[in-house]
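User: I'm curious what two different proteins look like when written out as structure tokens. Can you demonstrate?

Assistant: Sure. I'll show them one after the other, since each token string lines up with its own sequence. Here's the first protein:
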Amino acid sequence: MDHVIPKEKGGTNSYSNAQVLSRKEKREKSNNLPQRLNQLARNHYQLKQKRRK
């Protein structure tokens, strides 16, 4: 189990703030907020696209 919004950033222990992640996903998420993760994912996707060209 993981917190969607990390407790240290104001998240709660409620079920609405919980999600199931694999070890790899949890390691990648770290204590980032969902908005930051979307930004990181977009950057990663763009890098992969550039490498293919």
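Here's a second, unrelated protein for contrast:
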Amino acid sequence: MDGQEDARIAGTVPLVAVIEALRAERVMFHSETDFQHAFAWAVRRLTDDIARLERFCHPDFASMNGLAVLLTK
């Protein structure tokens, strides 16, 4: 994976572990929102942190609005 094996979400959860968990559970996702929800739950299952989806809006660029996965203790 071109040196990205160590990529971590919020410095704690290995990205590879999240993708492997998703691959084991789902063949496809119905929408981007469906994927984001499944991604947040996969992160939650792999850590003791609380994972939640939050909508963010960039004040200068309307096209940069989206969802973020936030991890909190």
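A detail about the second structure: The chain has a mean pLDDT of 77.
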